[in-house]
Specification:
Blueprint: H1 2-27, H2 45-56, E1 63-69, H3 77-91, E2 96-100, E3 106-111, E4 114-119, H4 126-138, E5 154-160, H5 166-183, E6 187-192, H6 193-227, H7 231-253, H8 265-289, H9 294-304, H10 306-321, H11 329-359, H12 369-388, H13 390-408, H14 426-437, E7 442-450, H15 458-475, E8 478-481, H16 483-494, H17 508-517, H18 525-528, E9 531-532, E10 537-544, H19 549-567, E11 574-579, H20 581-615, H21 618-641, H22 648-676, H23 682-709, H24 717-745
Antiparallel strand pairs: 1-5, 1-6, 2-5, 3-4, 7-10, 7-11, 8-10, 9-10
Length: about 750
């Protein structure tokens, strides 16, 4: 009875308000986080080796680089004293473990009085400083490391505490910014993990509010244009806001902060949830326009559309869940909570809308008659056009598919450091400065493992020296620090600091004498950072330009081949491995490309099973998949021709978009199944389906298109690509659903 329905509706709304209130409390405590290392692949042999390497040496990414440009000259006394004061004050910070500044470098020199430490720069002696400047200008060792290659700036390297936590990172960033403001250098360039993480955090907070606001405004405009009433705007929006609050609250309950990917969830859930609300609202209003009573209209709406909406929500959730097959934690979390959010949105919508429809008076529908008639006229003409141009549509589809396959062959798996930031971002500009003026910021790490029982010998050092020669001249690594570098410095010191002796000892006996003379040096922490005596690991560390993961892999393969040939004559006395954070990030992209294929195959199988159970027909499975696979091929082809690389952001686009795009196909086929049971001819069944679902399909696609397009306002390249390519896939998907799907359902011969 109407009274019982109203009472049930009140209880449903009370339940939803209670759940939303509890979730809202937890959602208000939600926080943002960006952990660089969370993007490392899990359960991976390369990661395991790197963690062992890090335990024995240090993390290669816990540093901050500063480059200071003077107004006059880098050898100006006042400027260098200012740099020295900055470096000394920075070193006092408890979160800084070491500071390397050209103003504090001491070079050992053996004299008749013993070993003395001579400063690289004599700050308080103008005559000696002039000689120092000439020595540095003639030396290739210091240029590109602590001095710019054109001597336009000096570099200070600060090492922060290992694997720094967010709170410590924020504290350090505040201290560094205050220190830079205090000294007010003419021009400063600086970069490092702690700065990058803070930049990402600030951007995430700003963009979450920006994207969500843009999406809300766009959806409100579309809903108002469509329904021309406050009712048609408020009711769908209310059904969408509730699941967003619930999902964010659930994330907080399970201690999952918002990161670079999960911060997109409110916007994604908003536009996806609006799609379900439009399908249900549109059907309800359609029933009312046909003069059907409110209770009957509600019953018909959820009987006919409810199951299809469940299937679409389920397939969308499956699309997100396939991201769980990635072994990268942030991608897994994004897939999991996106799927949870989609299913929560379905449950809330299927409970909230009937309750609201029951309790609220039906909207005035007389104003919609003219609009409804216009829609039917447009859809009739579109259907006639499709029938009249069947061959042209099929031919165009085949040509686009073949061209897309050609474009797909040109796609590269590639990734750059900080590629999420635009070239105009200050941090990206600073990174480019270090690439142009210094050795770059991409860390390079390599380990040579000694498999013999003896301690490090001259022969070992000579092999490492040959390897370093290759690294400098072929691989293009600079700022190299290794056991060879330390020994060369000591050999130079033994010969009065003469730069001509910056080389290895010539004989084993000379090497042994050097070890005895500088025995204290070989016990210091600096030596232990390049040679682990217990494991007999020799570390080669350096910096290089960010060439991208594609070319880095080519370089790594050639380097490994050279190293294997260099050491293979030594009777298995050595083992060489490349490691480091940069290598781990590169591996991520290869995994994501593999996971993309796996995820899509799983999604195809799940969708096929759903369609197979629904229609009990293999032909219908083919019909359902074709209009949703083709848009993926088209976009992949566009990426190939546009030279857009496959990486984390572009690879997850396909699984996200497929799960969403297939929704309209399921709505179309579900309605077609109902029409087929009414004993119509196939053509009439397809026509009726086209007319009844066409408007909702177009409207939901418009909402989804502009909702995802809002992400294109992002300064993050990854977010921009997700918005751009998902929107394009949805556009092509609706074209395929409207033009190709009816042709696949129609009989072979045109009547």
């Amino acid at each position: 009875s109407p009274v019982k329905l109203q009472k049930a509706a009140y209880w449903v709304l009370l339940f939803l308000v209670l759940i939303t209130g509890i979730s809202g409390y937890f959602a208000s405590k939600q926080r943002f986080n960006y952990d660089f290392e969370s993007f490392f692949p899990k359960e991976n042999e390369t990661l395991d080796f790197f963690l062992t390497f890090r335990d024995n040496f240090e993390n290669d990414n816990d540093y901050i680089l500063f480059a200071f440009e003077p107004e006059k000259s880098v050898f100006d006394t006042a400027f260098l004293q200012k740099v020295d004061a900055f470096a000394r004050e920075l070193k006092e910070n408890p979160l800084i473990t070491d500071v390397v500044s050209p103003t504090q470098i001491k070079l050992p020199v053996v004299t008749s009085f013993g070993v003395l430490n001579s400063p690289l720069l004599h700050l308080n002696s103008p005559e000696k400083l002039a000689k120092d400047s000439l020595k540095i200008a003639r030396s290739e060792h210091w240029k590109g490391s602590l001095f710019a290659s054109d001597l336009s700036s000096v570099c200070v390297l600060a090492k922060n505490v290992q694997v720094i936590k967010k709170r410590e990172s924020d504290s350090l960033m505040t201290a560094v910014e205050q220190l830079l403001n205090k000294y007010d250098f003419h021009h400063v360039y600086w970069t490092g993990k702690v700065r990058a993480q803070q930049v990402y955090m600030r951007k995430m907070k700003t963009e979450l509010l920006t994207f969500f606001s843009i999406s809300v405004v766009l959806v409100i405009i579309i809903l108002f244009i469509t329904y021309r009433s406050v009712w048609g705007v408020v009711v769908p929006l209310m059904s969408v806001f509730l699941p967003i609050v619930i999902t964010v609250g659930v994330m907080q309950i399970f201690n999952q902060p918002l990161d670079l990917l999960t911060s997109l969830l409110p916007t994604i859930l908003f536009v996806v949830g609006t799609s379900d609300a439009i399908h249900l609202t549109n059907k309800y209003l359609s029933e009312l326009r046909h003069g059907i009573a409110k209770e009957t209209a509600i019953r018909n709406t959820f009987k006919e559309i409810g199951f299809a909406t469940f299937l679409t929500s389920f397939t969308t959730a499956v699309g997100f869940l396939t991201l769980m097959f990635s072994n990268i934690e942030p991608v897994q979390n994004f897939g999991l909570y996106a799927a949870v959010g989609v299913l929560v949105a379905y449950v809330v919508t299927i409970l909230f809308l009937p309750a609201v429809f029951i309790l609220m008076h039906p909207p005035k529908i007389i104003d919609f008659k003219k609009t409804d008639k216009s829609w039917k006229t447009i859809l009739h003409k579109l259907f006639e056009f499709i029938l009249s141009n069947r061959k042209k549509i099929v031919f165009t589809t085949v040509v686009l598919t073949l061209v897309s396959l050609w474009g797909i062959g040109q796609i590269k798996i590639n990734h750059y450091l900080l590629q999420d930031l635009s070239e105009e971002h200050p941090l990206k500009k600073d990174l480019r400065y270090f690439e142009h003026k210094y050795s770059g910021v991409r860390p390079f790490e390599m380990v040579v493992m000694l498999n013999h029982n003896a301690d490090i010998s001259l022969a070992d050092l000579q092999l490492i020296d040959s390897l370093e020669h290759y690294l400098r001249n072929e691989y293009k690594v600079e700022f190299i620090v290794s056991p060879v570098y330390v020994v060369k410095m000591l050999n130079q010191a033994q010969h009065g600091g003469n730069s001509r002796y910056f080389s290895l000892p010539k004989t084993q006996k000379e090497w042994e004498r050097l070890q005895k003379k500088f025995s204290a040096v070989f016990k210091k922490e600096e030596w232990q950072l390049v040679y682990n005596k217990d494991k007999k690991w020799m570390r080669i560390s350096g910096k290089m330009p960010d060439v991208g993961s594609y070319y880095a892999k080519i370089k790594n393969d050639k380097l490994q081949q050279f190293a294997d040939e260099l050491f293979q004559t030594q009777n298995d006395k050595y083992q060489v491995k490349i490691t480091g954070t940069a290598l781990l990030i590169d591996i991520n992209n290869n995994y994501l490309a593999e996971n993309l294929i796996t995820g899509l195959l799983i999604a195809f199988v799940v969708i096929s099973l759903i369609i197979g159970l629904l229609f009990k027909s293999g032909k219908m499975i083919f019909i359902a998949l074709v209009p949703n696979i083709l848009p993926l091929l088209f976009i992949a082809g566009i990426m190939g021709f546009a030279h857009v690389d496959m990486n984390m952001s572009t690879s997850i686009v396909f699984t996200i978009a497929f799960g969403i795009a297939v929704d309209d196909t399921i709505h179309f086929l579900s309605k077609y199944k109902l029409e087929s049971t009414k004993q119509h001819s196939k053509k009439v069944a397809v026509l009726n389906t086209f007319l009844s679902t066409g408007k909702a399909i177009i409207l939901t696609t418009v909402v989804l298109f502009f909702g995802f397009a809002a992400l294109m306002f992002s300064d993050f390249t990854s977010t921009y690509y997700i918005g751009f390519f998902v929107s394009l896939i949805l556009f092509f998907a609706v074209i395929c659903d409207l033009f190709l799907l009816p042709l696949l359902l129609l009989p072979g011969k045109k009547k």
